[in-house]
User: Which sequence fits this backbone?
């Protein structure tokens, strides 16, 4: 293998690729050749670095210089300055927003300081399309250890002792699940990886599959050995083409190396993995629905028990775990249960990956020890709220979770604490909202999602959520009554209590948690016909304050429906009949002359 | 529904795929993915064909097709526009962007313009939340889209 003096790591995650990441790789390659450096420098497409806000990210190895917001045109300067002359390209370095100083290494950035990367250990380090790089980072060593040194019972004991809990949201102890599957006698058992990441605004699993696909394959093989299964299936969303392509490459490479297939490591253990595609149904994240979908059926859930561990795919015992859960397994086997359980809180061990998004300065993928507070995540790692606005709420757990507020910011994040304050861990989506977000509208947004995604099998979820949505819609139109509020709460509780699967049992959470934490906002909509955040279109209007308007005509030019009239240097006027409340004028006015009433 | 004549070459190709999948009902979703890839959408004729090949009833195929949002029974436009309505995009103003597309093209979500050029659909999170709000036209991704950018994006394809 050629030895290179320098490596240039270019983020090849979906986000960075969408901002011309691929062109950066091409241009770097070209310039390196022009400078005859192709034998000294290698350009590597890696998985996600996590710092999506500042993407595309390019990292120089060995000196670890971390360039942000790189464009294809910057390739020339990176090569000529950094590689040839040994000078850093200052303008591409990250600027610390507080000190205004340039920071060159990621370990000194606020975004990375508090992170511990276990599940994401290889994302942004290795080329996910090259199995040798995974092996060089102890890849498949855990599988080797389990197959040659441990009995299935011993390996499962390590996982049980580590305290690892399901990262898909439920938080069921992983080792226990494995043990149940192991104990059921059957001719054929299955290992399933749930990669049907459906929470809007969550991209943890996608990043792991794109950045470190072998970790998941290795863990599935370990699970196969522990539970006595010879077949693995990955159920992945069809919407993730890049992850699918990298998984396919990884599976083929692992087969070539004899790490999947017959008689692995000459131990007589055989295991292989196949892909199954989802087709856009949120409910298929629920394990019984997922199994039905893999069988070619409508993805409708069934009552548990029987649990998939006893009777799953094709009626056989099936162990279903989520991507992030699997990604933790090889490290736990190698480093030991004691090491893993030393991280985290009493009942939630290890780390958790979160997709931090919304109105926060540093959008990205982060991994923090359990027990980190929301404040640390949002303000230290996330860099606070965008545009200096005020923090209002953070939504965790996706459509099944709830909205937490200021008063919850110092609670250590773990499964039980989040549940206790009316939200949940979920798979790890974390959406930050600011003062401009209307919480009634947010609840409506989630219900819109649930109504669309409800499979329709049971009445409480199919009909109940639709009624909840209609009531919330009424509130945002300013037509809600006090009775609606009572009804909203009662119906929410009924849906929770009587729905068949996890989708319906949690779908009212966004309503209940916003009603609990933002009661005043609901009241404002009902009693005063006002939307305090100024977001509900029916309850607001844009008005130009004559004394502040200098008649620059900018607003009338950006108005898409010509609702603004007025002569140059004269105060303008918005026609309320024509206005579609798009807010374009409000955002453009440089004099703060347009207000929301 | 008017009878659509399916191109013979593609029909053969689909039959071939179904054969590879063992003509077995358990592989129905994979077969439908292949069919949609080939024909662009899944009209009744294609569903009948798949049902025959996979040895399941047409009703079963229809049930599956209508259950999953990825499958479409309406042909998409030449330039399919997808607006991400994931939460991250939503709180960063995706709804306004969607409204603007609807207004400019005068079609609703899930519809195609009469000239067949554009279709609008919503999707739930492409996972590029750092670029929110995100719009995709065909394979091209537009990040940090504001309502006033919509006109410009559409002009690129006119």
Assistant:
């Amino acid at each position: 293998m050629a030895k290179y003096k320098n490596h240039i790591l270019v983020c090849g995650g979906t986000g960075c690729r969408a901002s011309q990441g691929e062109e950066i790789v091409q241009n770097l390659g070209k310039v390196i050749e022009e400078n005859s450096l192709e034998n000294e420098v290698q350009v590597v497409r890696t998985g996600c670095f996590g710092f999506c806000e500042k993407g595309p990210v390019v990292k120089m190895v060995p000196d670890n210089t971390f360039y942000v917001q790189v464009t294809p045109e910057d390739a020339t300067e990176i090569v000529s300055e950094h590689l040839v002359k040994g000078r850093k390209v200052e303008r591409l370095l990250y600027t610390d927003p507080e000190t205004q100083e340039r920071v060159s290494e990621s370990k000194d950035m606020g975004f990375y300081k508090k992170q511990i990367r276990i599940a994401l250990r290889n994302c942004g380090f290795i080329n996910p399309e090259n199995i040798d790089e995974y092996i060089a980072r102890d890849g498949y060593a855990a599988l080797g250890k389990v197959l040659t040194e441990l009995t299935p019972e011993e390996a499962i004991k390590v996982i049980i002792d580590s305290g690892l809990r399901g990262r898909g949201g439920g938080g069921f102890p992983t080792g226990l699940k494995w043990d149940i599957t192991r104990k059921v006698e059957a001719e054929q058992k299955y290992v399933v990886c749930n990669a049907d990441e459906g929470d809007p605004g969550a991209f943890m699993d996608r990043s792991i599959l794109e950045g470190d696909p072998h970790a998941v394959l290795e863990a599935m093989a370990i699970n196969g050995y522990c539970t006595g299964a010879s077949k693995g299936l990955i159920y992945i969303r069809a919407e993730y083409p890049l992850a699918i392509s990298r998984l396919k490459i990884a599976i083929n490479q692992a087969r070539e190396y004899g790490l999947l297939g017959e008689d692995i490591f000459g131990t007589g253990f055989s295991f292989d993995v196949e892909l199954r595609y989802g087709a856009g149904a949120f409910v298929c994240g629920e394990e019984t629905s997922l199994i039905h979908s893999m069988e070619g059926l409508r993805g409708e859930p069934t009552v548990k028990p029987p649990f998939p561990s006893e009777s799953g795919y094709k009626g056989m015992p099936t162990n279903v775990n989520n991507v992030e859960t699997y990604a933790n397994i090889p490290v736990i086997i190698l480093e030991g249960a004691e090491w893993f359980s030393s991280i985290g809180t009493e009942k939630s061990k290890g780390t958790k990956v979160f997709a931090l998004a919304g109105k926060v300065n540093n959008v990205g993928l982060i991994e923090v020890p359990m027990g980190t507070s929301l404040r640390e995540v949002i303000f230290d790692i996330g860099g606070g709220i965008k545009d200096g606005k005020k923090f209002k709420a953070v939504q965790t757990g996706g459509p099944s979770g709830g909205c937490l507020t200021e008063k919850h910011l110092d609670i250590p994040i773990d499964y039980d604490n989040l549940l206790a304050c009316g939200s949940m861990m979920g798979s790890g989506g974390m959406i930050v909202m600011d003062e401009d977000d209307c919480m009634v509208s947010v609840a409506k947004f989630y219900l819109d999602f649930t109504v669309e995604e409800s499979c329709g099998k049971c009445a409480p979820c199919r009909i109940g959520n639709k009624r909840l949505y209609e009531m919330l819609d009424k509130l945002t139109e300013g037509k809600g009554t006090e009775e609606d509020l009572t009804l909203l709460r009662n119906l929410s509780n009924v849906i929770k209590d009587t729905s068949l699967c996890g989708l319906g049992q949690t779908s009212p959470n966004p309503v209940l948690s916003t009603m609990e934490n933002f009661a005043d906002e609901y009241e404002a909509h009902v009693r005063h016909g006002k939307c305090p955040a100024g977001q509900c279109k029916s309850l607001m209007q844009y008005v130009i304050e004559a004394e502040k308007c200098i008649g620059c005509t900018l607003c009338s030019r950006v108005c898409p429906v010509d609702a603004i009239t007025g002569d140059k240097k004269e105060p303008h006027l918005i026609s309320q009949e024509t206005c579609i409340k798009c807010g374009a004028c409000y955002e453009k006015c440089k004099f703060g002359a347009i207000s929301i009433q | 529904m008017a009878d659509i004549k399916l191109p013979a070459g593609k029909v053969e190709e689909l039959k071939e795929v179904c054969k590879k999948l063992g003509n077995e009902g358990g592989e129905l979703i994979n077969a439908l993915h292949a069919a949609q890839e080939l024909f662009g959408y899944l009209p009744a004729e294609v569903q009948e064909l798949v049902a025959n090949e996979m040895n399941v009833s047409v009703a079963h195929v229809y049930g599956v097709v209508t259950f999953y949002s990825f499958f479409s029974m309406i042909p998409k436009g030449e330039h399919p526009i997808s607006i991400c309505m994931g939460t991250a995009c939503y709180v960063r103003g995706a709804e306004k962007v969607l409204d603007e597309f609807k207004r400019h093209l005068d079609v609703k979500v899930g519809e195609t313009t009469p000239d067949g050029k554009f279709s609008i659909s919503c999707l739930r999170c492409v996972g590029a939340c750092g670029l929110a709000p995100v719009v995709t036209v065909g394979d091209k991704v537009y990040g940090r889209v504001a309502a006033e950018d919509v006109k410009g994006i559409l002009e690129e394809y006119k």
Notes: The beta strands of chain B are 79-84, 118-123, 135-137, 140-142.
